[in-house]
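Something for you to look into today, if you have time. I want to see for myself how the chain folds. Leave the record below and I will have a look.
***
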Amino acid sequence: MTTEQRAVAAKKAVMLGCEKLLQRDLMLLAIGAHEQAICHRLAVYFEPFSALNVDCEYNRQRVHPKSIRGGRIKPDILIHKRIDNRFNIMVLEAKARAATSARDEQKLEAMLAIRGMYRYALGVYLHVENKRSRILKTGQVKLSLRWHGSDDVCEMVRHVADPILHEIAGQLD
């Protein structure tokens, strides 16, 4: 399988993984869990679609720390083969509540650069809209996916059940 074919397969894995996340872990999303908890569950859902490693917060380039512009980085989720750059397939940066930051943009640029050190084939931005006030207002959790280099956004929305909404409404800020 070529790197391009792996990137297409990784894109499919991302879509299917996000669907599973919404189906199986809607409460985790609705209660405002941190992006690390969300990324862990999402990585679990990616694993069946890849013969490669799926890692969260993986900070190694072979045996050395990953870095860009002198600063160390820990991408949120990677699909790759540890210690082998020929299989750097997908890098995902996620944000829960907040918008994608300039630093996330820089990380993906560096991770995807063709002449760069890492050369991942696919970059993904995931935004999880799980802010309590928004969920109470809309009754929904929304995931937004954007592929690096594209302005196209894929949105996935799920309705939050009334018992969960009542539980959230009772929380203090």
